[in-house]
Amino acid sequence: MQQPRRPIVWTIAGSDSGGGAGIQADLLTFADLGCHGCTAITANTAQNTTGVASINAVPVEVLIDQLNALQRDLLPDAIKIGLLANSEQVLAVTEFLHRLKAIRSVPVIYDPVAVASSGDTLTEDGIGELVLRELFPLCDLVTPNLHELEWLARAPVGCATQIQNAAQLLHTSGCRALLVTGGHSEINPGEIADLLWDGVRGDWFIGDRVDSENTHGTGCTLSSAIAAFTALGYPLRDACVVAKAYVQRGLRLGQGDSIGAGPGPVGH
Ligand code: PLP
Predict the structure, then answer these.
(1) Centroid of ligand 1 to alpha carbon of 206 (angstroms)
(2) For 187-217, what is each residue's pLDDT tens digit?
(3) Mean pLDDT, range 6-21, rounded to an integer
(4) Superfamily for the 8-254 domain
(5) Measured between alpha carbons, how far is residue 203 from residues 76, 171, 227, 236 in Å?
């Protein structure tokens, strides 16, 4: 009997030479979940577990070449977007998605990466407004962590009400839903609370915090897992639930690892 075709998932994101986050985490996740991953690389970061040494944005025409090549032969069942390094890239990806969506309905999951876990800035200053205006309306789901939520909403996110208000504000930019990840919150140290806001309903997903130093790549892995599960046919809300469970498993898998001198990668 013929096997069903493996879903194709694209990642439009940056490379992490340390293999913990970015494109590398995305491909590990897609493969793990039975999808074929394709990549359009936005930037090359030279980094290891202790920090980012340099970041080089890919020229916008090289980014578009990658997307066009994929479109000619490997149409996606879902797209994950991670790091966009500058405003030119935001505009180019937005324009490309408009063209793609005119011929194919494809879920877009955007992880609005701006700062590496080490604290190093990865994007050009001031692309937040452009992202909200141009890219958000094309996204089925945006997955900010609390720093990214604060960056985009320009509002404090220190308690549940503020997080909810900021998510509601960002939703007015036109994305279908937001999943705010609470891994950086210190409100309840023993648990992690993520908020899924779809414009009507807000659901908090509460999970136990896994005590691990090896958390690098959790945001990338979560958004990639959501894209993969969506490509596999899960409705968005279910995809969020199983993707969160997948990241929890990865945190437990990576718990005892000692990869590099700094915070190591989440397990896959
Ligand atoms: N993308 C790239 C290329 C990165 O280097 C990083 C962090 O260093 C990220 C995304 C975000 O990583 P995380 O999943 O830990 O938030």
Answers:
(1) 23
(2) 777 888 999 999 999 999 998 899 999 999 9
(3) 98
(4) Ribokinase (3.40.1190.20)
(5) 29, 15, 19, 13
